[in-house]
Write a structure and sequence with these properties.
Length: about 60
């Protein structure tokens, strides 16, 4: 008897969701999940913002 392995992919994670939409720097999917909006889009990261600003929501606010 052979076991069939199946893999599923999540189409919501794309290249643009792992990049800061302000400066283009790479961010991890975990960073996007924590500091991004509901679709994991990040508008500020540690390259173009401060941790204090990110904690107050600058990663979510799209200007």
């Amino acid at each position: 008897m052979t076991a069939e392995l199946t893999t599923t992919t999540d189409d919501t994670t794309t290249e643009t969701s792992t990049r800061c939409r302000n400066c283009g720097s790479y961010v991890t999917s975990a960073f996007a999940r924590v500091f991004g909006d509901n679709e994991d889009h990040v508008y500020a990261c540690l390259e173009c913002s401060t941790m204090r600003s990110l904690r107050t929501g600058s990663g979510v606010v799209h200007e």
